Protein 1
Amino acid sequence: MRPILELQDVSKRYSVRRGFFDWRKRSFYALYRVSLELGTNKALGILGESGCGKSTLARVALALEPPDEGEVRIAGREPFSLSGAERKALRRRVQIVFQDPFSSLNPRKRVYQLLAEPLEIHGLCPRSEFRERVAEALRLVGLSPDDMGSYPHQFSGGQRQRIALARALILSPEALILDEPTSALDVSVQAQILNLLLELQERLKLSYLFISHDLPVLFFLCEEVAVMYLGRIVERAPTKDFFSTRHHPYTELLLESIPSPDPGKKKRRRLVRGEPPSPLRLPSGCPFHPRCPEAQDICRREEPALEKKAPAHYLACHRR
């Protein structure tokens, strides 16, 4: 089956001023030659630290921003080559749930208004059916239809995220982009939302593009994980093989950062040198080499391509 979402060699540049008194601009890559695909009823995790380009990836994948290079395809169609009406219909097939439910829901609107608005924008059903569709969406995420008349501030953080999830699901999408949807929640509430996402995926045959910096969450929900560093995908691997294969040095450092459940067990940790470089002043060669404990001369000269190293395992590293 054709993937619901495809990115092929996608790059996205932004321009910034050189300084407060210098209005000249210089550009940098927020995404650089990113390729991935999201199959039907699959969950792909995007892992990386803050500033690596995860949220830019979400905006480009939703066709909210056009790529400067490469192609984005939703259900096999390139959205930026379509008319406005066709693009809107195509966007309905991929929806997003944002990180912070406290800011993603309009505090001046009741729950009914928040969930009915997408139905009105896309004209999916007569207005007389709005209330029934909203009630169905609320039941789907474990809330009561009686909550329709309430405002977002009257709910807990977990309940607000369920409302945001209901708003995305009311359009019957085929895929959801989940931009760190549990990071603003308590640990116990995180578990409830993750279990709900698994139930919804099984019931509705949804696909997930799950963006996070939390490795255990991605291992729990996703079949495959792509690791990003400075706008590049440096590794893609199935989660079932993540602890039985050799990884990119950056991925290995992320794995070492996971706390051990045994407080008496000491983990061997390697020293990470320095901070991520500015996207405006990237080093030559591999962008990770100034921090890499195993950097070689070739790493300083040539940027490695993302290559297949094993079945379903792709790696951008000169190390053999």
Protein 2
Amino acid sequence: MSSRANGAAEAPDVLTLYGEPVQSRLLLGTSLYPSPDIMRRSVEASGASILTVSLRRESSRDAGAGSRFWDMVKGFGARVLPNTAGCHTPREAITTAQMAREVFETNWVKLEVIANDDTLQPEVFGLVEAAEVLCRDGFQVFPYCTEDLSVAERLLGAGCQVLMPWAAPIGTGRGLMNPYGLRSLRAYFPDTPLIVDAGIGAPSHAAEAMEMGFDGILLNTAVAKAHDSVAMATAFAKAIEAGRLAYRAGIMPPRDMASPSTPVAGLAFIDAARAS
């Protein structure tokens, strides 16, 4: 048995983010659900320990609806990760993060600085700039970024201790568009928690990322827009668990040639000519 397999059986496998243990490796968004009840049941089915909440979306609600939503989220008992969704400049993102810290009473923030509205691709220059300011201000920043190694280096240098690379553009459900880039990111930063964020559309996508060694998956649309959100939340939870377990067990490498599972030595030899 490999050393990794031994470790899978013996060592505790707990994700730690900014010094805090997290029980579930599935992070779930709270937007787009058909109803509050479906969101509640989906969160429960997912077992998610962290929920993302957009300050801008909740601020746009009337005061009563926003208060009810916040009370419901607090009732889940999950950690809230406010995000700066919809921000296009570092200044917007910094201001939104500061407001979120007051509203949600947390230093955690998912930092988004968006380049354009068509792809919702991270604007990496502004992202690094905002991360530097927020980290100096005591925030614990979860930056939504690309799989670019130089951007990752800059974000870690700014003080981020977690990275959240995208798999594909937000809401597309296209899965891992650049597996090579994601594998390279994982290999270059083996000790940094890496959570795949955006573009995950099917449980198989999530399992594939976890099998690469990523530490968690953040998703929203694939569950919220499913025909049965509760069942889909359950499916993702199981896929993420299976992918993580497979990674720790040690996945066999692909081969160019067939390799028989039954050994040839010891098989009975039959003389076809005499048998006929």
Protein 3
Amino acid sequence: MTEAPAIALRVVGATRRFGATIALGGVDLEVRKGEMLTLLGPSGSGKTTLLKVIAGFEMPDEGEVFLAGRNVTLAPPARRDVGMVFQNYALFPHMTVAQNIAFPLEMRKVPRAERDRRVADALALVDLPAHGGRLPRELSGGQQQRVALARAVVFGPSLLLLDEPFGALDALTRISMHGLVQDLWRRHRPGVLLVTHDVDEALRLADRVLVLDGGRIVAAHRPREAADHDDLRRRVLADLGVTEDVVA
């Protein structure tokens, strides 16, 4: 199966079961290069399971995953051109900031000199140029999230997966991180798949918003094409079956 060059990610019929529970029920989606797509849905809707299938941390029971036209359904995470940021940052506590950022480069056998250069560039990119020698516990939550972002983009992935990366941050830090993610996206233009439960966050950041419920995509929206943001917001909330701003 050959993919169009403009497609960073294509998921075809992804199904994942855990016993009698269907976490994913035949999901089809694609993310174009340079596009930011948001997955919105309540807890248990299958958002994180879908990201894990794409990243290679879970194998689908059925379906296929293509990255830049290459079938990676059975490939391990290290063999996929994917950067991922988790809600809990997932930094190695015993490694310095620089060592954390360098880790994916080491896994890809990047030479030491080139590795050091890329780490320095990544630290500057997230505005932490003097923090390379610190341990994660010495950083604030926002700084740890910046390190996680630097680690995810340091090897130049064609796809960036963000699993509710702002959920543990305070309101002001969230706004700052939104700006940083948008800046990184504009500079590198990877495909971005952002998982969130925050309706306003989804509509603010994304080119397209997909609503996931019960392991299936139940609605799709294009915020940048909406003439009436408030009306779009009401429709998305209706898709989710709620009247609150944030879906728990």
Protein 4
Amino acid sequence: MIQSLTEEKSYTLTPGPEGTIETQTLEVSIGPQHPSTHGVFRMDVVLDGETVVKLKPVMGYLHRNHEQLAEKMAWLGSMPYTDRLDYFNSMTNNWAYALSVEKLAGIKVPERAEYIRVIVAELTRLQNHASAIGFLLQDLGAWGTPLLYAFREREKILDLFEAVSGSRMMCNYMRFGGVRVDFDDKTLAAAREITTRFPKFLDEFEKLLTENEVLLARCQKIGILPRELAINSSITGPMARASGVEYDVRKVDKYGVYGRFDFRIPLGDVGDVYDRYYIRVLEMRESVKILEQALHNIPQGPHIAPEVKLRNFKIPNGDGYGRIEAPKGELGFYLVSAGDGKQPHRYHVRPPSFINLTILEDMCLGQKVADVIIILGSVDIVLGEVDR
């Protein structure tokens, strides 16, 4: 929905010197949108004709006080709240928080649990990227087909998550020192079947989209994010890699057991909407490679550290920062333990959606108002972690 903020700023044409036409800028408000789109979010846009000359993201409609709530509850009590940060990717949210607490407490995670974490994280990446592409095509006007194809594959992954955690989206699956429930043979078989069949879906998806002349015309050279600006603005994830920034926390930190897997980091060279689309396709193919290796080599053993007692869980005094490569970029938790160690003294989230949204104006300046919608779609935000 696009509406005028003030009637006094409506678009007018007035005669200029020597018969030329002078124009006035028009200030419009795009949004706030319904939660079934990208979330409750607004953009104040100033237009010269149809060209964007200024853009201000307006957020805060969904603020839920996540960080302050966490400072008033036990360490484990915050785990289900992390599900609500990026409600598409609760498994990776859980992992980032669990990793931060484990670093602070010096907890060693069993190998089988590390492999299970990798498996659910890469399955999460598959369903996130497929859905993000479907939503982007929805923003382009391709109603129905791409998004339904993506959701068809997403449902298979959510069925597996429900089988192992009891919930399709708010999984609350990770625990300090491992995972809540082990993968049995049936669950492993289901994960292998999804992994085996996913490349065929990607081939069909690419046949439909990658060389599509409408997608090429609408997305190439639109919303370019220069490499230097991406670095200077702390942009991470597919957004940064589409601009040629070779940075992936899985490679940099090798957290969990990622150091054991052979996979590459796809990079774009233009940094436009099309590169941000295609980098997600390539990342899904790399996730399939990781899944194949993890499922083939998953060891036997405990799924959670036996010495970790979840009741009366205490953390020694100190502070620490743990981070992972979430589907949208670097997701980190900065935690401070003080006093009796029963709850965080300080709890702060580094959310990729919020950071990646800060350069929205830079990508939109000089573009047409119709392009603003797909540029926002290519960022892949979720307001749960923007307005945490």
